[in-house]
């Protein structure tokens, strides 16, 4: 179908004279280029993988001899979560009965307790904890909420059911007051118990969507993501029920925003260039990050990211890549290594002659964020990124993916992406 | 522009004016406008936009004149303002017009057709129905809409405004010219002044002439005089000369000195009532050493308003000193005028004596820089216009020391603080002065903008009650930020939005960082700026632009200084509150926490008894206690409560030892002076004090 339309469309396009359309080669040629790239990168990965697998499997924290000890969590079975909670509660009860009140020792998730480990290419949590005593005005609320959440999760363990974060919040609205408070404590609890958030049986509402050349099973049902209509398949919140991934895609395209995702899905971009398209509609949630990692690990495909050309785009990229500070305790499971920055990069603005009126001046806050990002280790490790970010801060201009629409709504899928693929222009 | 240019012209031409106007009356082709005419036609620039604003401006001009007059003889000001409503018939009788009933009702704009009356009656019926319903349901009713009768077009309200002070008074012979000639004032030196145009009562006189045609009445007496001058006059607008009705001397029985001015004008009390009252109150804030009595006398007695703003201090700021111009602030016209007016002979003397910050040495260097055409000894009167341009250019480019702020008279931190406390009763207040205060030594001196020194003083208050008066409610503080602006010690009430103070307080201060809640706390921001030239914006001179970075920075830092002072107070207060409420806020969470713990224990006990799960030994011991009801929710609660009690006790002890006995800084109180006429005291004597009962 796509092939049928194509010749007609190119004729029209010639009339419109889309910029850079002329240097675009035929799809077949691009595909050929891509194939050769992937096979070369695969063999490279294979060889390095072979060498590393001989010494050890993928690098973990334990393999590194870091100066400061770090905290990491693991997937725990329900019963062990239950036991952990019970141990904590009995301790508390004993302490109360002895007349000593009680307190929790909660790992600190503050920025000062985070560490970027270049060998792992992700953020990990150091071992500093803070004491949360009940008998203190500043911490009594959080301590009580923590106790309550522990009791609620204990119930979930007994009954073996999943609830959403929203459900959890509604069990005691009066105490929790607003959902951010119960959500924050939930992360504290999983960190404290040393398990992932998914092992607490608490899930977040679906946010991410996937479309394209992917077939997987969700709770036993086979899902074909090419046949999910335009919107694609919502990424299931409990990733432990996802399995049997198959794909003939050549790459995974990670999109920051819903609008660009819809454009690509509607144009069936994945049929022209076999790929899987994923978006979390902004800041990624846990499920999307887990899903992306699973795809990357099982299908061994390169991940190309299409984000806005502003500091937040890069930040989102970094959350996929090296993890968020808020959930660094679980970064081992949540991060996807080796994501390539495809666009929109600050250098693209001039390269693709994006008109002045589609670029936005950066606010002072933007520039500050940009400068702060330049200090971040995950940016520093990639000289190409540093260069791009420097350019952004220098020109003080940003642009959203939608800026490309100034050449027509379909410029993104018709010209920009194919050209990027042809030139293998990613960092 | 008129305000800037005309003084120079009039000063020169004041003697010629009458001659000029005589000529112009003959030549109808080339008509020359007298200054009075100019202001009559452009009355909006002097604040006489509409009847309501005119009433407001009349009051403020009279009040400001009164304050200036009292301060000029270092007398603590006592100002009495009375606004008397004059009904139509009374007004007509005043001007000798007989009341006339409407005969042809359809002639008038407000004639009500039958249809319209029907409509209105239906509407009124409905309104009264709703009102009755509300009354029945116990709801509070707002002003019933029915009573609001729209004023017919053309039916103006008239007011007699009287302002009496205890000031200097005016010399008998000068009075007609002081009122009857526009731009003949004494305020044209470079000096910090209250008046904005130097129009004062004259503009009110022009307005009364335009709206009522009634003359102004002036009573005045000076300290040395044993008589009171009474003068009734109006103004010949076209010729800009006074037209005297009566000018006589009366006996001064009360040894009063000062001035009393009475003028009848068209106005609108209903719409400008709150502005006028706000003005009076804010004036009382910035002038706490003055006593104000404000009265509004209505035709309907229940609408009468009497507000007395009592004196809280007898410390007056020094009188602003007239100063010479700073070379960087003068323009070409001013140089010309100075050259014409100077008594000095040579250029060197002229530069040295007519400007600040130019000494002999610098004057000589400046003349050298001007070029070969100039020499120190050349006669200053021989300087040509071209040469003046050269002088002007050099003044602009050369570097001069900043003018000192000694010529300014700020309100003073002490007075500002007193004023705020006296009139607004806030919970907390902090003040900051950028000047060398006469009470508190500060490291800041005046700052400079375009050759004019300025001083910024600020006060920030938190909390406070709404000020209620018997017959009116003045809501001075709403939740959020309330801004009070003062320029040269007079309040600015209009065009708040663009003002530098408003912008700074709303946009550039991070209130949160001072523990002040921008939306929930009642915050008062008071900023007083004094300068030899306030850089007003807009035609009405009602606000100071936000584009002058020197002033914006000074305002910001002054407010911040106040906030820093407040923060420590607020933090202390929060700590104290935390002390009081610690036990309560901790105890509140006991049931939730123990409930959750007990819940898990109960579940575990169940699992244990049903042998679904094996537990460790010490755990089973506890679980058995739970099943035997030795450990219950209540025991957990009790034990936790005990712990909270103990912690609370320990922390209270710690707080007490740490903070010790620290008191708030003491504040001077002001005791009103007793009237010496009182003699009926009863004194109760004791060895250490005297207790006096005042009857």
Automatic annotation (TrEMBL), chain A:
Main location: nucleus
Job of this protein: Component of the DNA topoisomerase VI involved in chromatin organization and progression of endoreduplication cycles. Relaxes both positive and negative superturns and exhibits a strong decatenase activity.
Gene behind the chain: TOP6A
UniProt-listed Pfam families: TOP6A-Spo11_Toprim (PF21180), Topo_VI_alpha (PF20768), TP6A_N (PF04406)
CDD domains attached to this UniProt entry: TOPRIM_TopoIIB_SPO
Residue stretches making up the Spo11/DNA topoisomerase VI subunit A N-terminal domain: 141-202
Native species: Brassica napus
Residues binding Mg(2+): 256, 308
Topoisomerase 6 subunit A/Spo11 TOPRIM domain location: 251-421
Catalysis: reaction(s): ATP-dependent breakage, passage and rejoining of double-stranded DNA
Protein name as it appears in the record: DNA topoisomerase 6 subunit A
EC number: 5.6.2.2
GO molecular function: ATP binding; DNA binding; DNA topoisomerase type II (double strand cut, ATP-hydrolyzing) activity; magnesium ion binding
Cofactor(s) needed for function: Mg(2+)
Domain Type II DNA topoisomerase VI subunit A all-beta positions: 206-242
Keyword Nucleus: yes
TrEMBL record, chain B:
Keyword Coiled coil assigned: yes
Pfam families xrefs: HATPase_c_3 (PF13589), Topo-VIb_trans (PF09239)
Its job: Component of the DNA topoisomerase VI involved in chromatin organization and progression of endoreduplication cycles. Relaxes both positive and negative superturns and exhibits a strong decatenase activity. The B subunit binds ATP.
Oligomer status and interactors: Homodimer. Heterotetramer of two TOP6A and two TOP6B subunits.
Protein name: DNA topoisomerase 6 subunit B
Domain DNA topoisomerase VI subunit B transducer: 403-582
Reaction equation(s) it catalyzes: ATP-dependent breakage, passage and rejoining of double-stranded DNA
Record field: compositional bias (Basic and acidic residues): 20-30
Protein's gene: TOP6B
Positions annotated to bind ATP: 65, 165, 186-187, 195-202, 541
Keyword vocabulary terms for this entry: ATP-binding, Coiled coil, DNA-binding, Isomerase, Nucleotide-binding, Nucleus, Topoisomerase
Region (Disordered): 1-36
Coiled coil regions in record: 598-646
UniProt key word Ligase: no
């Amino acid at each position: 179908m796509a092939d049928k339309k194509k010749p007609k469309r190119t004729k029209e396009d010639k009339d419109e004279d889309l910029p850079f359309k002329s240097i675009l080669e035929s799809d077949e040629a691009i595909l050929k280029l891509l194939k050769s790239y992937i096979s070369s990168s695969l063999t490279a990965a294979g060889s390095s993988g072979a060498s590393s697998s001989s010494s050890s499997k993928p690098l973990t924290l334990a393999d590194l001899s870091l100066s400061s000890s770090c905290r990491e969590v693991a997937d725990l079975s329900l019963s062990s979560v239950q036991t952990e909670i019970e141990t904590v509660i009995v301790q508390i009860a004993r302490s109360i009965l002895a007349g000593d009140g009680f307190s929790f020792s909660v790992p600190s998730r503050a920025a000062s307790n985070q560490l970027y480990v270049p060998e792992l290419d992700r953020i990990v949590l150091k071992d500093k904890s803070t004491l949360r005593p009940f008998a203190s005005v500043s911490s009594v609320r959080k301590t009580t909420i923590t106790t309550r959440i522990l009791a609620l999760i204990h119930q979930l363990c007994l009954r073996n059911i999943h609830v959403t974060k929203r459900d959890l919040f509604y069990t005691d609205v009066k105490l929790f007051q607003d959902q951010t408070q119960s959500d924050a404590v939930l992360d504290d609890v999983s960190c404290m118990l040393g398990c992932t958030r998914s092992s607490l049986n608490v899930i977040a509402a679906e946010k991410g969507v996937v479309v394209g050349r992917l077939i997987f099973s969700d709770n036993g049902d086979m899902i074909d993501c090419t046949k999910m209509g335009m919107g694609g398949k919502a990424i299931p919140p409990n990733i432990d029920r996802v399995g049997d991934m198959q794909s003939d895609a050549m790459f995974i395209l990670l999109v920051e925003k819903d609008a660009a995702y819809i454009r690509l899905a509607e144009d069936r971009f994945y049929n022209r260039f076999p790929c899987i398209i994923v978006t979390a509609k902004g800041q990624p949630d846990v499920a999307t990050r887990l899903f992306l990692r699973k795809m990357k690990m099982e299908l061994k495909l390169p991940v190309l990211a299409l984000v806005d050309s502003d500091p937040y785009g890069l930040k989102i990229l970094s959350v996929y890549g090296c993890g968020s500070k808020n959930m660094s305790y679980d970064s081992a499971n949540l991060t996807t290594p080796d994501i390539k920055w495809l666009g929109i990069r600050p250098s693209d603005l001039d390269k693709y002659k994006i008109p002045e009126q589609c670029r936005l001046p950066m606010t002072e806050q933007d520039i500050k964020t940009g400068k702060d990002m330049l200090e971040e280790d995950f940016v520093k490790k990639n000289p190409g990124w540093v260069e791009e970010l420097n350019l952004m801060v220098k020109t003080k201009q940003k642009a959203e993916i939608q800026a490309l629409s100034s050449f027509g709504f379909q410029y993104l899928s018709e010209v920009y992406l194919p050209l990027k693929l042809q030139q293998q222009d990613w960092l | 522009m008129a305000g800037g240019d005309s003084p120079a012209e009039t000063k020169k031409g004041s003697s010629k004016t009458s001659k000029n106007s005589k000529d112009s009356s003959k030549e109808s082709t080339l008509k020359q406008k007298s200054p009075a005419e100019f202001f009559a036609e452009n009355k909006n620039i002097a604040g006489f936009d509409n009847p309501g604003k005119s009433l407001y401006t009349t009051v403020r001009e009279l009040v400001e004149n009164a304050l200036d007059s009292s301060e000029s003889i270092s007398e603590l000001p006592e100002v009495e303002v009375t606004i008397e409503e004059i009904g139509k018939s009374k007004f007509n009788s005043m001007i000798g017009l007989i009341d006339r009933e409407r005969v042809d009702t359809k002639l008038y704009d407000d004639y009500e057709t039958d249809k319209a009356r029907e409509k209105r009656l239906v509407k009124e019926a409905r309104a009264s129905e709703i009102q009755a319903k509300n009354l029945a349901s116990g709801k509070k009713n707002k002003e019933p809409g029915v009573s609001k009768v729209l004023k017919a077009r053309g039916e103006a309200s008239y007011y007699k405004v009287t302002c009496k002070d205890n000031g200097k008074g005016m010399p008998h012979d000068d009075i007609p010219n002081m009122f009857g000639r526009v731009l003949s004032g004494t305020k044209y030196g470079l000096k910090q002044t209250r008046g904005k145009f130097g129009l004062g009562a004259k503009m009110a006189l022009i307005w009364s002439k335009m709206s009522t045609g009634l003359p102004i009445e002036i009573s005045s007496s000076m300290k040395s005089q044993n008589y009171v001058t009474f003068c009734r006059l109006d103004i010949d607008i076209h010729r800009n000369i006074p037209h005297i009705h009566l000018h006589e001397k009366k006996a001064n029985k009360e040894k009063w000195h000062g001035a009393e001015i009475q003028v009848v004008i068209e106005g609108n009390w209903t719409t400008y009532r709150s502005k006028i009252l706000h003005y009076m109150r804010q004036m009382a804030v910035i002038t706490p050493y003055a006593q104000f009595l404000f009265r509004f006398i209505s035709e309907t007695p229940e609408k009468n308003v009497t507000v007395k703003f009592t004196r809280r201090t007898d410390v007056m700021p020094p009188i602003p000193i007239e100063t010479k111009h700073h070379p960087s602030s003068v323009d070409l016209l001013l140089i010309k005028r100075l050259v014409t007016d100077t008594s000095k002979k040579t250029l060197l003397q002229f530069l040295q004596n007519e400007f600040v910050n130019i000494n002999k040495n610098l004057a000589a260097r400046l003349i050298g820089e001007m070029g070969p055409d100039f020499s120190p000894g050349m006669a200053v009167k021989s300087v040509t216009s071209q040469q003046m341009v050269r002088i002007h250019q050099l003044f602009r480019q050369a570097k001069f020391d900043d003018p000192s702020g000694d010529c300014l008279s700020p309100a003073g931190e002490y007075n500002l603080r007193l004023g705020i406390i006296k009139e607004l009763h806030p919970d907390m207040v902090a003040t900051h002065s950028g000047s060398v205060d006469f009470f508190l030594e500060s490291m800041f001196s005046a700052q400079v903008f375009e050759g004019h020194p300025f001083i910024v003083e600020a006060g920030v208050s938190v909390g406070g009650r709404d000020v209620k008066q018997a017959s009116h409610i003045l809501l001075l503080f709403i939740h959020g930020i309330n801004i009070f602006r003062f320029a040269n010690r007079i309040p600015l009430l209009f065009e708040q939005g663009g003002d530098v103070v408003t912008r700074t307080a709303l946009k550039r201060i991070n209130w949160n960082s001072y523990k002040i809640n921008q939306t929930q706390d009642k915050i008062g921001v008071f900023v007083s700026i004094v300068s030899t030239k306030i850089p007003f914006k807009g035609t009405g001179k009602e606000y100071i632009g936000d584009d002058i970075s020197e002033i914006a920075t000074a305002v910001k830092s002054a407010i911040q200084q106040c906030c820093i002072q407040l923060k420590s107070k607020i933090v202390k207060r929060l700590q104290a509150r935390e002390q009081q409420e610690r036990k309560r806020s901790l105890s509140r969470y006991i049931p939730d926490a123990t409930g959750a713990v007990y819940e898990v224990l109960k579940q575990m006990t169940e699992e244990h008894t049903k042998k679904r799960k094996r537990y460790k030994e010490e755990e089973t011991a506890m679980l058995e206690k739970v099943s035997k009801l030795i450990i219950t929710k209540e025991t957990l609660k009790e034990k936790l409560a005990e712990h909270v009690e103990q912690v609370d006790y320990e922390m209270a002890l710690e707080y007490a030892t740490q903070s010790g006995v620290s008191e708030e800084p003491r504040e001077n109180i002001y005791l009103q002076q007793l009237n010496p006429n009182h003699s009926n005291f009863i004194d109760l004597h004791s060895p250490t004090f005297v207790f006096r009962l005042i009857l």
